[in-house]
Amino acid sequence: MPNVIKEEQKAHEVKLTITVSQSEARPYLEEAALRISKEVKIKGFRPGKAPYHMVVGQVGEMRVMEEALDRIVRTFYLNALLAEGLEVTGSPDIQVTKLVPSQDIEFTVQVGLMPHVKRLANWKELVFKARPISVTDKEIDAALKDLQRMRTSEIRATAGAVASENQKLVLDLEMKKDGVPIEGGTAKGTIIYTDQESYLPGLKEALMGMKEGEIKTFALTFPSEHYQKHLAGKPVDVTATLKEIFHLELPPADDAFAKTLGLEHLTDLKQKLNENIGLEKEREEHQRQERGCLEEIAKKSQFDPIPESLIKEEFERMIDELKRNVASQGLAFDQYLSSLKKTPEELAKEMRPQAELRLHIALVLKHIAEDEKIEVPEGEIDQEIDRHLNLYKNGPNAQEQISSPTYRNYQAAILRNKKVIDLIRTTLVGGL
Question: What is the DSSP string of 88-157?
Answer without folding.
Answer: EEEEEEEEEEE--TTS-EEEEEEEEEPP-EEE---GGG--BPPPP----HHHHHHHHHHHHHHT-EEEEP
